[in-house]
Each structure stands twice: as structure tokens, then as C-alpha cells.
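Entry:
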Amino acid sequence: AFMQASWDVEEVQAEGIQYLASFVEDKTAFPYLLTCTEVITLAMKVHTDALDLQVEGCTLLLEILSQALKQGVMMALDESVASCLLHTVRKHSENEEFLSMLCTLLMMVSASEVAAENLRKVGIIPDLLSILRRFLHNDTICFSCCAVLWSLAVSEDNADQAVLAGAVPVTSAVLQEHLQNGVVAESACSALWALALQGCLADSDYEPTAALLLDALRMNPERTRLVQNGCLALASLVRHSETAALAILLDSKGSGTELIKEEYHLHSHEPRVAEALCLLMSEMVQYDEVMLNMRSQKMEKLLSEIKFQFPFS
């Protein structure tokens, strides 16, 4: 009420945010803090030029969301909050340090399906792509923005296919830039998987995207989640394009079928990886030429191994 009575007074809003922040460590106050997210974001929207207030508001929201996630509480922030956050992103689109915080906040917010849908509705996708292009070198921003893109793209009822198509080259650029950074590469692979599922790739994208995903698997062979999502992304590409399947077989850096075998043997006790690899192979064998090649590479032996290892899956 104290903050709501004086929206236009910056000092009042700053003091209100600082006062709320003093309760972050108090477990009993947590349910009340959950109800304050709209007040905090609105204060940030009204006073977008006050960077200190923005940083304190963003820090407080991160604290609240972190606690919520730890306690298994999914915060479905509404459209007005999403709109306030977008306003803040646009106002500070050049401030790399603050954007790193904001993008982390957006990633945490987008964990909720409802909140992700609200971010999509207010039109955040072009802003995310613009941020990625500008700060391609920043691993925190790239990791967070790709995670948000994944959350927005996996929505089944997606009316943003044209906008999402623009995300393919940007996400590919992120993966290319951060191939050796397993955390960022994993996030980019997941985003590419979601974009492929939505059919956002143009015909000319299939071959280079398949090659890039194979590079990510080669560079990060131990990362279970990256291998799983990278293979699922490849399976989605192959489902739509024989070119992608041939690109896996004939990759200039080595046989994709050999890579599939290596990845299975590295993760032979991970049912999700085995499932992703089987899905990729089942998509590949729909093409006669590819199936003949896979037979000559003794892929049936690998399938028998997988069947023996996971008889009930």
C-alpha cells in the first residue's frame, strides 16, 4: 500500500523494494513476498531510468523466484508483469551487466508455462534475438536467452512460427560461438531442438544445422543432457529432410554413425540418451539410401545391444 500510494515518487519505490528485500531470509514472510512481484515490476516500469532501483528490483525478483523454485512453487506471472519486464529489457538493451541479470530472471520466469506464454504474447522474441546478436560473446546472456527461446518454442499452440524462424540463425551462431562451453552449448542445442520441432528451419538450414549439432556432440561427449537434446534435435531435422540424414552420414569431420555408437557406449546406462539415439536412428532409416549405409555400418548390432541393455523400455 505504501508503494501503491506514490507510484511516481522514486524514493518511495526504492525504499519499498529495500524494505521487501529485508524479508528475503525470513521463511515465514515468503508467501507474502510471492504476492509482491507485480508491485516490484510496476515500480521498475514506472522508474525505468533509475538504474539502482532497477538493479535492486531485479535482484529481489531473482531471490523470490529462486526460493519459489527451491520450494517447488511455480510462479505463473501474468501478462502485466511480462509487459513490465519487456519494457525494462527495451529500456536497458545496451547495458550488458544489467541485461545479464534480466535475462537470468526471464529464464527463471519462463519455467512456468503460463508465464512463458505471457512473455510470448507481449512480443519478447525479437528482443531476445536482438540481445543475442549484440552480446553473442556473453555466455550468461546466451545461456539464459536460449533457455527462454526453448520455453517459448516448445509451446504447442505457437502462432509465432515466422518470428521463431528468425531464431534459427541466431541460435546457430550462439552454438558456433560457444561450442566448447558445455552449459551454453546445451542450452543452444535445446533451443534448436524446439525450433526444429516447430518446423522453423528453411531447406537451406538442414545441412549446416546438422553439422553444427554433430560438432556440439563431438566437443561435449560427456554431457548427458546435451547429447540427449542434440540427438533429439537431429531426429527432428531428419524427420523433415533427407539432406540432414545424409549430412549425418557424410559429415566431413567423421562418420555420424560412428559418433552415435561412441555416444551410446559413453552413456550406456542412461535410458534417455538411448531413447534419443533410437529415435534418431528410426528417423534415419525412413530413407532407403541411408538405411543401406547404416546396415553396412553394422548399426543393427548397436540396436541389439540397446535392446539387451533396456529390455523393458
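The mean pLDDT is 89.
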